[in-house]
Amino acid sequence: EKGELCFLDAQVGGIAAIKVYVTGKKGKARLNFDRVTRGELILDENVSRYEEMRTLGQRKKCSVEFLKREYPDKADEIEEAVFDDDNEVKINYEVEVFEFWHLNSDEGAADGRHIIYFDGCVLYDNKKWNGDRFPFAFFRYRERGHGFSGRGAVETCYPLQVHLNDLMRLQKESLEFTNHPIWSEHEDAEVDQESK
């Protein structure tokens, strides 16, 4: 089901992604797959035109309760970031969480990083992250000559749609002209008015 939705995402936006990650401890570990829409991905298309992407992010709305369950050791910091001194909510009870990955710049380099945060609170920060690829499986409807994203069906069909629109306009004008004939006669013509 998630694969079908990703295919539809790629048709519309050119690219779709499934986030692949593991939850649980050894022995009870579970492989998870989450659909990620194009709007959730944060990337710099300009960088990807000229070199391999090294940094990629994801934005996601999460409830504060979910974050406290997922990061129990950060519960106090989460509360601090969400509530003010009078226990009034400073921000919405649902927050936008950002997760970024930065791949090592070179083989053997140790400058990779994985961070999860929202405004006012860092939930996770691994400055020694050494992943060699992003935790996503990407699908492109059609490859593009440059850049990270692919081409969707909408973009691919655009020139054809413009041509079809021109043909429909011409057809409409032709029908309007032939369905509303204009009679004209020269004043010297001897046309019987009764036969008109």
Structure description:
The protein has 196 residues and is of the alpha+beta class. The chain has helices at 2-13, 45-50, 64-70, 75-82, 153-179; strands spanning 15-23, 30-36, 41-42, 55-63, 94-102, 113-118, 121-126, 136-140. The strands form two sheets. A five-stranded antiparallel sheet has the order 3-4-5-6-7. A three-stranded antiparallel sheet has the order 2-1-8. Helix 3 runs antiparallel to helix 4 (75-82). The longest helix is centred in the last third of the chain and has 27 residues, at 153-179. The mean pLDDT is 82.
Largest sheet: 5 strands, antiparallel
Query: Which class of secondary structure composition applies to the elements?
Result: alpha+beta
Percentage of residues in strands: 25-35%
What is the arithmetic mean of pLDDT?
82
Percent helix, as a range, is 25-40%
SSE arrangement, N to C = HEEEHEHHEEEEH
Give me the number of helical elements.
5
Distance between the termini: 67 Å
Low-confidence stretches: none
Task: Based on Cα principal axes, name the global outline.
Answer: elongated
